[in-house]
Amino acid sequence: GTIASDDPLIRDYLIKNNIVELLNFVLKRYSSLDMVRKATWTISILCGVTHSPDKLPPFKTIKPAIQQIPDYLESQDEDILVNCCKILALTLPGLNEPDVLEKLLKLLLINPNKFSNVNKSVLDVVIQLA
Asked: CA spacing 20 to 30 A to 118: which of 33, 56, 87, 124?
């Protein structure tokens, strides 16, 4: 993920060479917080969170990587939640998940003071939808 964050060409190369498939495998097989944090962070990089809006990858290339992301909106881990919100801020209009907005709003209501970074990230997603 780190080298892909610096250069969209490297990110695109990794996408073309099946990193999405590998990340899906990680998310399906591993439940440790550390692995899920790393996988969601890497997916956020692949979605273009560190690149300018004119350098985002085509949605169809990253769609397989984001299919499981809504499931992680129920995590109790701040880093995973922030990573997921960053992903959704870039991809939600193309993702057909009707309950995502409800899950995002629940995050704001659960404990408004517990995860201030999560609250900011949720609001970033909502702003993208407006």
From this structure: 56
Q: How confident is the model at residue 114 (pLDDT cuts 50, 70, 90)?
A: low
- Whole-number mean pLDDT of the chain? 87
User: Side chain identity at 112, as an amino acid letter?
Assistant: P
Q: Which pTM does this prediction carry?
A: 0.88
Are residues 89 and 69 in contact, defined by beta-carbon separation less than 8 angstroms?
no
Choose among 34, 40, 8, 28: nearest CA to 118.
40
Q: How many residues does the chain have?
A: 130
Tell me the CA distances in angstroms from 66 to 8, 70, 75, 83, 113, one per residue in order: 18, 8, 16, 11, 28
